[in-house]
Amino acid sequence: MTISAPAPSRTPGRRLRTLGVVTAVAASLLLASTIANLAVAQVERSATAPYGQRVQTSHGALNVVRTPGNGNSEQSIVLLGGLATPAPALDYAPLIRELRNYDVVVVEGFGYGYSDQPAVERTVENITDELHQVLTALNIPRPYVLAGHSIAGFYTLAYANRYRDDVSAVIGIDPTLAVTHSIPAEQNTESGMGINWWQLASATGLLRWATMLAPGLVEPDGNAYTPSERDQMLSLFNRNFGNSPVLDETNRIEENARKVQRLHYPDDLPVLTFLASGEESSADPERYESQQRNVRQHKVVVLPGAHYLHWTQAPAMAAEIQAFLGATSTLGKN
User: Are 174 and 148 in contact (CB under 8 A)?
Assistant: First the structure.
């Protein structure tokens, strides 16, 4: 009796072929997505006119939007956006409309809005120096009010200490307190091979399709924005998401916090702080009061809402700002 040897199994070969087909299909879809994303981005750029004016600094050009006031336009308020806010000038639109009596200036940092995206370290020293260069170049009347949202709380604190004579008051919009902490490794968006996964998601169009399917993930809350503002904000979100300057700024949070954590606002500099009371907020008013205990004129205002208070609370914020600045002006004359 002859026993034949079993035929060799073809399963491993089939698995490899299947894996090859799946990989080829995925690569083709990704390529098609990338090409389509580039085409859509080009159409968006052609159809939408950039806002603001570009002001040259020693590191590149920053985009600035200036809205002259109808009334007390001699008083300037300089607004700084929070971390990864793709288009600060548009993000602040509801608040700018409410601050119609002031000369409002929004300076978009590198990697934001229509500013350049140079490979310049996003240290607190560089950021404050670039801001000072821009405001000086534009001849913004001094002293001006400096206002910042979220991580910009680091920069308003550093700037007020570095250029005290240029600042008349500081406004914080749910500002980040300079408390050092370790950033978990998974929050670092670069792998050991130096891959920027954020930019990869943006370049391949995966981010665009995700925002098309679920626009609520990135659209601002409330009804204070026009349709064109929302469209341009979404376009700039896809353009600026995960770019190098923003990634570098993110990775330097702890470093920058360490540099400013021992600073306090000058005793004679008025400080107004808005805090969010929403479920996502972890702001503790007492900690902000403690930070400002040396400031002779300060006020902490808690408003209902999420971290981006200016999306939904612009009227209330503008009223508080006008009252606070009016009180500081009266105090200065006495």
Answer: no
pTM: 0.82
Tokens of 284: 């503790």
C-alpha to C-alpha distance for 253 and 300, rounded to whole angstroms? 24
Instruction: Give all domains of the chain, ordered by start, each with its CATH number.
Output: 53-333 (3.40.50.1820)
The CA distance from 89 to 310, in Å, is 12
pLDDT at site 182: 43
Q: Measure Cα distances from 128 to 8, 54, 180, 250, 259 in Å.
A: 70, 17, 19, 16, 13
How many CB atoms are closer than 10 A to CB 313?
24
Residues 200-258 have pLDDT tens digits of 555 565 666 666 666 666 789 999 999 999 999 998 988 888 899 999 999 999 999 99
In whole angstroms, what is the distance from residue 185 CA to residue 160 CA? 32
Find, among 155, 160, 108, 172, the residue nearest to 310 by Cα: 172
Long-range contact pairs involving 284-289 (C-beta distance under 8 Å, separation at least 24): 287/177, 288/172, 288/177
DSSP calls for 54-76: EEEETTEEEEEEEE--SS-TTSE
Residues 6 or more apart in contact with residue 119 via CB below 8 angstroms:
244, 245
